[in-house]
Design goal:
Number of domains: 1
Strand order of the largest sheet: 1-2-3-4-5-6-7-8
Helix content: 10-25%
CATH class: Mainly Beta
Shape: globular
Structural class: alpha+beta
Number of strands: 8
Radius of gyration: 18 Å
Low-confidence stretches: 4-20
Mean pLDDT: 88
Largest sheet: 8 strands, antiparallel, barrel
Length: about 140
């Protein structure tokens, strides 16, 4: 009986490890479709997030001072640095798709519901309002 329980526990742990490896394939750095931003996707707990680590217009003229999130709809957040700004939040992996997340667009100051689908070194980002049918997809490329 002990051997049977041990076998079941090992099977469960193996399945959890395989699931984690599949879902974690999104981790790393991604280049936006327009090649004007680099986003690092990371995991906290069982959720996935992404922060802006580079953008073509991230710094002021001095090349050192990060520009601010001046287009944010919330005046209290307009003083945040664009450098390391979290733009992807709270994604959960579910059967090959990262769902229930939000994407923030610092160019417009708007936040959208979002889902992501990984296809090799391409990441389909679908931002939408209400239903994903009413949205737009952009394709990011993995940084190697």
């Amino acid at each position: 009986m002990k051997q049977f329980l041990l076998l079941i526990m090992m099977t469960v742990f193996s399945c959890v490890a395989a699931f984690s490896q599949q879902s974690d394939k999104v981790l790393g750095q991604w280049l936006s479709e327009d090649k004007d931003g680099k986003i690092e996707i990371y995991k906290t707990g069982n959720k996935y997030f992404g922060k802006l680590v580079w953008a073509s217009k991230m710094y002021e003229a001095d090349g050192k001072t990060s520009r601010k999130d001046e287009k944010n709809n919330n005046p209290g957040l307009r003083n945040r640095d664009l450098k390391d700004l979290v733009i992807l939040t709270n994604f959960i992996y579910d059967d090959g798709v990262y769902i229930d997340g939000k994407i923030y667009d610092p160019k417009s100051g708007k936040t959208y519901s979002c889902k992501m689908t990984l296809d090799g070194d391409k990441l389909d980002i679908r931002g939408y309002v209400g239903f994903s049918l009413f949205g737009r997809t952009t394709v990011w490329t993995r940084v190697k």
